[in-house]
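One record is kept unedited as follows:
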Amino acid sequence: MRNLTIFLTIFIFSSYAYGEFSLIKLGVDDNNTVLVTGGIQGDEPGGFMSANLLARKYEIISGSLYVVPNLNMPSILKKSRGVNGDMNRKFDKISDKDPEKDVVEQIKSLVLQPNISMLVNLHDGSGFYRPKYINQMMNPNRWGNIVIIDQSTLDGALYGDLEQNANKVVDRLNSKILDPKHKYHLRNTRTSDGDKEMLKSLSYFAIKNGKSAYANEASKSLPINERVYYHLIAVEEYLKLAGIEFKRDFELTPQGVKKALDEDLSVLVCGKFLFYLPKSRLGYIPLSSDGKLDFDCDNALVALTKTQGIYNIHYGNNIITRFTPEFFEYSNLIDEIGIRIDDDEPKFVKLGQKIVVDSSFMIMPKDGVRANIIGYGTTISDESGIKITKDMIKSRFSMDKKEQIYRVEFYEMCDGKDKFIGMILVEFAK
């Protein structure tokens, strides 16, 4: 039985603020937990999108997996290697004044937990590594498509045959390469021999503390879905080495990965809000008048920022939509509403859901609740009890680019001053 616990922090930034990371736990905790991290450098989307897909699309059948997809969310939002310097160079020494000190100490504490037996850090590197110089993009100074270890073995550690295990991962990757130039190689940085940069890294911090650590690099020359494809092949091999059984709900091919990534963005559940493949610009969205933002999203790569009164919804490196706020008091009067779909018998639908209709829907009246079908009416009145077809709603108010999805908002009627309860989305299938 899968046991899933998610700790999510949504990041609200108006500047280069520091935020915490998300930790997703899959499986049942035991003393053989693999920790996978992505996003320590914010300009490496292959790494953090792979970790996020791992957290959202995999099921652990036996064993334990921890995933941190957004280790450096402020840098992810800014498409920056590090808005406060390279975080992956702060695990040896860090100033008390460094704005990232807290998050660095938190990830250190996580790595040091007794149940963590292996760390896998996901990165994107430039070009394609080759042991000998071939050309500008394929030479020893490139970091793309390599498996990295700090040393050959780690005595006394679980999975301490680092080189042997890493070579198994390399062989697996090369059995699945899409093009000969994508060939993977092992790169042993021999960190303790004096690699001054790698001495400061997260992976070497793990090694110093007796934890096996590996890094996987995918080339920045590849499209995102191919980077994720290679990262996930590597992660799956590490899970197999650790005896962790898993399954996923998509095919591990470049095409299957692309579809899974698209699906991952298709529905965003964020507290009282629901977004489905949103347009680049949406109309007024009801926010809390008390300044508290009920926007706790179920996706660790989604964040909200504010710029000159306009709110931006981010997904990783990209802004997927912008909207103007409208402020209301919030209410929890109801958490479901009766809806008649295509003349069938009414059924109760939880707020924060998307329903699909062929031709029509009707919101069933509820005492004290006002339904507002965005794009239908022009007056502030309860729009429940009305059979609604698509042609009755102005298409410019749709939530999606295909103009098939519309939102219905619900308000508690309080002496002429409405309080926002929540929303549902209605998709017209035809």
Observations:
- DSSP finds seven helices and 27 strands in the chain.
- The helical segments are 45-57, 73-77, 101-111, 162-174, 202-208, 224-241, 254-266.
- Residues 146 and 307 are 39 Å apart (CA to CA).
- The chain has a mean pLDDT of 91.
